[in-house]
Each structure stands twice: as C-alpha cells, then as structure tokens.
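2.7 Reproducibility. Because tokenized structures are sensitive to small changes in the input, we list the exact sequence used for AMP phosphorylase, including any N-terminal residues retained from the expression construct. No trimming or masking was applied before prediction.
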Amino acid sequence: MIKLSAKLMDIDYRGVMLNREDARKTGVLDGDRIQIINQERGASVQAVVTTTETIIQEGTVGIFYVTNKRLDAKEGETFEIRVADRPVSIDYIKKKMDGGKFTSDETFSVVKDIVNDVLSPGEVSAYITGSYINGLDMDEIEYLTRAMVSTGEQISFGSHPIVDKHSIGGVPGNKITLLVVPIIAAAGLKIPKTSSRAITGAGGTADLMEALCPVSFSADEVRNMTEKAGAVIVWGGATNIAPADDRIITHEYPLKIDARGQMLASVMAKKYAVGADLVVIDIPVGEHAKVRNPEEGRKLAREFIELGERLGMRVECALTYGDSPIGHAIGVNLEVREALKALEGANIPGSLIQKSTSLAGIALEMAGKAQNGEGGKLAEEILKSGKALEKMKEIIKIQGGNPDVKSDDIVPGSHSYDINAPESGYVVELNNSSLITIARTAGAPNDHGAGIYIHKKKGNHVKKGEPIFTIYADRPWRLESALETGRRLMPVIVEGMMIDRIPSDYWRNSRQL
Ligand SMILES: O=P(O)(O)OC[C@H]1O[C@H](OP(=O)(O)O)[C@H](O)[C@@H]1O
Ligand SMILES: O=c1cc[nH]c(=O)[nH]1
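Resulting structure tokens (single pass, no recycling of outputs):
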C-alpha cells in the first residue's frame, strides 16, 4: 500500500492515472485495478489504472472525472492505494465468450461491476460481444433485466395505469416518440418516457429532445415532472434508472450493433424501473433494419411479451415498416423540426403521422381510452385538435426548455449539398444503413444541424437533375467527408441508372495500387 495525493482530471472518462514508478511500487500494470481509499471519510472505490511517465508526477494519483463523481475527492487529498482483486465477473464473461450460460448471480455480478466501473471498457466490450455472438436465452434476459433495474433507482406512482412505449430503433428518422408521448399524455394518461441516445442510428430520442430542452434528470425529478405534466421525455442514461443500460449502449454505438438479448433487457428494464403497467413496443422490420423479416419480428414480439409477463407488465408489439426512413428527415434538428411541424398541424405526408397515431392508438386501447380498433382514430383526433402540441409544450416547459418554440426555429446545418438524380426514373433503392452512415459522417447526432433531408423516397419518380436528398452539416469538412462516404456507399439507385463502370484494365490498375 502507498499513499498518494489526488489530482483531479477534468476528462470525461473512468479510472485513474498513476505515474509508472508508483504503479511499479503498488504492483500494478496498465489495465489492472486498484482500490483508492480514504479511511477517515469512509470513501473507497475501485478503478482501472492507466500509467504515464509525464502527465502524473510521482506521489500523485490522477482521478478521472466520472470516477471522481463516486469518490468525491478534493484536489490534494491523500488516498491509500492498494492492488484490488481481479473481479470474478471477468470469469463469467469468459464463460459466455466460450458459449456458456449465465446464472442469475453471475449476471448480477457482471452488471454490478459495470455500474461500479470495476470492469474496464475492453471487458465491457467483451461482455457485449460474447452475448452478441452466443446469445442470451429468455432466463438470462430476465436475469439481465432484473439486474439492470436493481442496480439503479426505481420509480413508483400513486395512480395507475402507467403507460410506456419504446422502439427498438434501427430505422432512420424514427422521431415518433415526440408525437406518441404527447398524444398519450393529452388523453389523460401518465407516460414517464426514458430514451437512450443513438445506438445504431443518427439520432436517438434523447438526442432529439435535447434540441428542445434539458434531458438529464434524477429519478425523483422524472417522477415529479410526470405527476405534474403527465409525461416527460428524458435521457435514461442520466437518471440512474437502469444505469448499466447506458454503459452498455456507449460500447455498442461505435460498432453499430444492438445485441438481441441486451436490447430486450435494455428496453424492458427502462419500462420496469418506471413502474409501467402497459407497454407498446415498435419493431421496425425491413431489409436494412435490425429485424429483417416479419417472422423474425413476430419471434421478437413474442419474446418482448413473454419478458413482460415474467416482470408483470402487459406488452403489445407493433411490427412496423422499416424499409424506408420515417418521414423525410434524419438527424437531430431536421427530425425535431419535422416532428414539431406534425404537431403544429402541417400537412406532413404519410409515414410519420400514420406510424405515430397507430402506436399511440394501441396504447390508448390498452388503457381503455378507446375501443379496440378505434385507438388510431382517437390519436389522430388528439393530434389534429392541437392538444398534443399543447401537451408537448407543457413537457418542454417542465423540462426547462422554451415552450413557445416553433418548428421554424429549429434549423439544419448551414453547409449543405444536394444529391441529384443522374437519370429520370423511379427510386428503387434508398439504403437505410448507408443513409445513417452518411448522416453520422456529417456529424450526427453530436452536431445538431447535421443530417439528411430526403426529397424522393423509395418508389417515387424523380427527373434527371432533381434532388433526391440533401446532406446538411454544421462544419464544412464534415460535409466533405459525408460526400466522400456517400460516393463510396451509393445509398440511392434510380431505375435505369448505371451503378458503376469497370474498365478492362481495372484489375491491373487496382493490383498496381
Ligand atoms: O439508434 P437506433 O438503434 O436506431 O435506436 C435507438 C433509439 O430507439 C429507441 O427509441 P425510443 O426511446 O423508443 O424513442 C431508443 O431509446 C433510442 O432513442
Ligand atoms: O433503448 C433501447 C433501444 C434499442 N436497443 C437498446 O438496446 N435499447
């Protein structure tokens, strides 16, 4: 054991940094774990070590920002540093990587160590990859859901039913939560909606809502705001509701993967933790979506329903069209503007309003607000009457945003480029996954102005030279990269257009490269 004085490092990262000499004295290498202890205050956390020769001087321990949120160290405070045992959860992760099955206790141990930052980013990625490749069965998924809930805070409400909705994502432009939640709340129901940020997409609901108001709240605040306004739309990652969820999603985001078992647990843990009784799940189905065909969609729906039964929630699922973006906008500001326009009563074509009112309609029927088969109509009436817009303003206000915001106040990035049709014909291919990659390369979701506006969707006729879609970015170099990505991925095909020309000396030239 050695004693070191704290140096606070304002870096949004987990763990500690030790001078190599102190690491040697303690007996740890890069990636090992230490226990940092202040006996007087009773403060003690485990952290993964990074070593340095220059950034941290001998006699000092650098404490990264996220770890210090739990340790609450002051600059210069003295801490005892000891080698920490290798967590047993790593053995469980290896077991899963070798194709084994988690028990309930093993799952809890892994989740607890993720939440307490005991596992390094590499170990969390190994857990996700092991579960992604070898899968989780329904028992393991239930264990994971319960572990995610029990390692965080839970909310309970005085009156019921509590309604909730969730989309598994995977379809670009899926801004429907900004319509579905206010419609349900305007019907007099409570819906404490927590969302994640983008996982495989260019803007998750939490990213979108953040363009209108703060989304980071404690569990208590979520409950109080929902009691007052009937609804919230907040970022689950900030609430300490199922805190493991966001840690897992952070590692899935760069890989653009959403492991099936973890997805079921991630969604249902958020519902269970807010005390939901009635849950509607949106499962987009399409060639480039997370679920490729209706059979797979029905299987996933059964799994959601079964998991709901195990946890005491009534779940209904909607298989939705996931072959084409929802509405015309992809990326934070473009999507928020489109959603607000729909709430303001603009004549937005098709998919956004239809999908939103169908999903909201299922919830209204489940809660007994509408007869079976009448929910969609009631949802549409609520939207058209302006009551959903009023409710959305109330939600924005209670979360600390400007309730008078108009759709036209939310503007796309100032750098844009139109992708025009090379030929006249029908749009026969508009690849969701490539559109998302282009929008992300343009800066989405971090740059709120970045994204894509689609003028012609699959099946639409386009004349030569007309724009098919426009790419927006907040920074010129991001737009350049997005264009380069677009040229490589060719996300759109117009019937009759030549896709590529391969000259006879192509192979010789490429071999020379
Ligand atoms: O990034 P991809 O994987 O498309 O989807 C992730 C999005 O889907 C869900 O939407 P909601 O919370 O039901 O609105 C998540 O919370 C997240 O916002
Ligand atoms: O909230 C969500 C949505 C999709 N997939 C997840 O893992 N979580």
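Residues 168-169, 196, 199, 258, 262-263, 266-267 surround uracil (ligand 2) (CB under 6 Å).
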